[in-house]
Amino acid sequence: MKKQVYVNIFLETGLRVDPRITLIAGESGLSKEIKISEMNRPGLALAGFYDFFAYDRIQIFGLGEAAYMKQLPPEQKRNVYEKFFSYDILCCIFTHSERPDELFCKMADENGVSVFVTERKTTNFVGLLTHLLYNLFAPAISVHATLVEVFGIGIMLMGKSGVGKSECALELLERGHKLVADDVVEIKKVDEVLLVGNRTDILKHYMEIRGLGIINVQDIFGIRSVRNKKRIELVASLEEWDDTKEYERLGLDENTYPILDIKLPLITVPVRPGRNIPVIIEAAALNQHLKKLGINSAQQLDERLKNLMEKKNG
Amino acid sequence: MVKREVKVTGDAGVHARPAMMLVREAMKYECSVKLVKDDVEADCKSIMSVLGLAIIPGTLLEILADGADEEKVVNNIVSMIESNFSMN
Known about the structure:
The complex is a heterodimer of chains A (about 325) and B (about 90).
Chain A: E1 5-6, E2 21-25, E3 33-34, E4 39-40, H1 43-46, E5 58-61, H2 63-71, H3 74-85, E6 91-94, H4 102-111, E7 114-118, H5 122-137, E8 140-144, E9 146-150, E10 153-158, H6 165-174, E11 178-181, E12 184-189, E13 195-198, E14 206-209, E15 213-216, H7 217-221, E16 229-231, E17 234-240, E18 255-259, E19 262-271, H8 277-292, H9 297-313
Parallel strand pairs in A: 4-5, 5-6, 6-7, 10-17, 17-19
Antiparallel strand pairs in A: 1-3, 2-7, 8-12, 9-10, 9-11, 12-13, 13-16, 14-15, 18-19
Helix pairs in contact in A: 3-4, 6-8
Chain B: E1 2-7, H1 16-27, E2 32-37, E3 40-43, H2 47-52, E4 60-66, H3 70-82
Antiparallel strand pairs in B: 1-4, 2-3, 2-4
């Protein structure tokens, strides 16, 4: 699922890249597509060195570039700008509220290149933009699952339709935990080791409960019961109890579930009438906290036993 | 696996009631049934998943089924959509 991103992303309020950014020229350039999630400082190009000029990236004009442009004599300025705009520039962003001169804006208009100005400092803005672009271009998939936050741990409940994912989430909400997404989780790989699950815009915090229909979780349980996104740290696979299958009894071996090449810890929870699944999920979340601190209950018990045996033998 | 494309006609798209009809039909069968819109996949057995696709009129929808009775369920769903959920 590849998302197309256009230059007008800087003006979309919903994304809030930077509320302090304004468009000052080149409105017709807003429809250009951003294909590369990287930036370029055009200082060298302005000074006349155009080898390796990455014109198809977002051009960031900092204090240095702005000062260089200001000191150029008028006749030379035209040449510099003409050469610069002879490339198919993606867009230009000036930081530190440094507005470019009228000639630059006029030529940007003529060439259909959007020019923005932000109040932010260069480093600050670049950091912000890097994060946003990485997020936008991050590999993503949509998964049939329910994502909840239990004691601060993002747990993805998976399993066939009708196994009780939503009912489990409902009970967890009742116990004060949070719902991120029901039934459809959009997962983004925002880092080599980090998966973040999002709700979809349309489904928001609605969920379907068999027998009740569609309910609005935020209206029923209040604002503290919902989250828009959450890092996924554990996958709990709910499945109908199968007498022939061996379920985990020790917890010494860690099973994993791969999503976008990242292996997440997996627990398989067999469901049977009368089994309190939400309590198991809560315990799994707390156990996950312990594991993060390097404490493994199964190993602890095993070591106690081994110590005891050594004493008896010795 | 069976795969067929169908264009959603009518003027309302797949809102709550049509979505429920699609889910009810898919639930009758053991096989997996998926709807695909612009590379986004939805489980046709989950009402939230189908609603989340936001299938507006004019959408080109791909229906995928895999397993027992796959042919039958795809045909049924295609004819439901083609008949505009018998709302005409």
